[in-house]
């Protein structure tokens, strides 16, 4: 059982801001830092105490800020460095800490480091990136970028190829070079000195590459093979990460949450063990990627509720004694959770609240993505012209070239595109959802007139108010933070739930994931503290009903 001397971030609730889509303050259609400052009071009232701010660094915006041109400068459309420092200070006055994205795997191809690297094969920074000659007139390897197409781009200037695991405008840094590592560590220190409390670390499991640069075996006739086998969580990566911990993370005592795809559950303790691990917590993506067929882009994979529950619960179990998880249902790289896991139609309000109750009270630190707290949904974009995400645009181009029907492509993007989570924050029923006075950089979801902050603030039964209640409940009850976790209804394809025990306290969360009324075969332990539906009927769970109950620990209780 945890004790109260645990680090502050365990008791925190994090709110993720995608600045481009949060709040525009100057009418140019792009969210900005001044807009965030103007909404700090809303975030304070919500109850969060940490903001994860997606990249606001200077960038050509090929990948919406994850292609950084200058780590030490703010992108003009977001504001100035003075605005950034004011945001940190004003947030602190509200009791809110700030963590920023650390993008350490790659830079923009317009970064000064890369400009110098590509200038000549004799450049002192040539080895700061990964350059290779061609292979008999072809790319050095048959690796496929995460954004589609070859992971190698030919450079006319120096007549070699550079590696990019993502966009061709995001060349990968060569972490084998100690000068690169020290430059990243110095940049981290610089931002900590400006008052940030830590980092969400982007794509960190890509920093180590197989130094043999092998040709990968293909299971089909496609020219390129996904590069994960050679570039994801490779042997030796922990040497780099422990150096980062030793140089920056441990001495500065900052909060860290790593985007760590490719880490198998058996290896989790090497990453988040509280004594010997590298980070405070990681994001795992098993539950949000259930519908993505491994190694096959664009193929929808049907999934079952038992798989969804297991994808979350297995990490809870594995980190029970040592380690901590980041809890989330959606973010800037994924679609809206109520559209994916709930019912965004007739049971929109009920299912959005149910999903919140289910994930929020597990063992870990909850993350809320902007708009999630009001139940923002996906919407069908009828034309590729409505999309802005480079991954989606590349996917459309590549699949079109392979002869895939346009309707199939758009249907897939409607349920998987990152743009589904990037439509502007819906503040009110005013034009453009109160996000901007101008033309937004991406279309506003048309349902903003009925789903928006202003409406939900006035509705005491809203999704927003339910999130507030969840945050307060967690803050006031340490059992819901530090309690042991035990899953119930493991084999049910209708119900999900778990028990948190802490001393004599026993909390039970039970959720109905269907649009049917389900009988409860076992009596509730304790009494209902919070429900997402008025007038609970004993012995029944109404469609998408969630119950949070408190009782006393029963040592003889058996698993349901």
Describe the structure in your own words.
The chain is an alpha/beta fold and 560 residues long. The protein folds into two domains: 8-106 and 178-222 and 229-385 and 420-470, TIM Barrel (Alpha-Beta Barrel); 484-552, Golgi alpha-mannosidase II (Immunoglobulin-like). Helices cover 27% and strands 17% of the residues. It is built from 16 helices and 22 strands. It has helices at residues 33-38, 40-46, 81-93, 112-119, 178-193, 228-231, 237-252, 268-272, 305-318, 337-340, 348-360, 390-401, 406-416, 453-457, 463-476, 479-482, and strands spanning 14-17, 50-53, 57-58, 70-74, 97-103, 131-132, 143-144, 152-155, 160-163, 198-202, 225-226, 255-259, 281-283, 326-327, 365-369, 484-488, 495-502, 505-512, 518-519, 527-531, 540-541, 546-552. The strands form six sheets. It has an eight-stranded parallel β-sheet. The protein has a five-stranded antiparallel β-sheet with strand order 16-17-18-22-20. α12 (390-401) runs antiparallel to α13 (406-416). The model is unreliable at 1-5 (pLDDT under 50).
